[in-house]
Fold:
Amino acid sequence: MHITTTTNGVALEKDLQEFIDLRLHFALGRFADIIDRVSIRIEDTNGPRGGIDKRCRIVVKLRGFQREQVTIDDHDTNSYAAVA
Structure:
């Protein structure tokens, strides 16, 4: 299971990366044999205006299925809550 994390307008600090890795391995670890890759994108949609503006999109691509994927998309007030 290959994990890629990208951000836009959000600093990817070491603590946040460790939190993401921990959450993903807890949630998806038992399916690691059938998961090819996981892409996480965290972005600040409103910039400095604040509010519920942190977006986390997780895309899971399955092994052996070129077009099949599972996508999770959430918005929250901070990056950790959006990932969780």
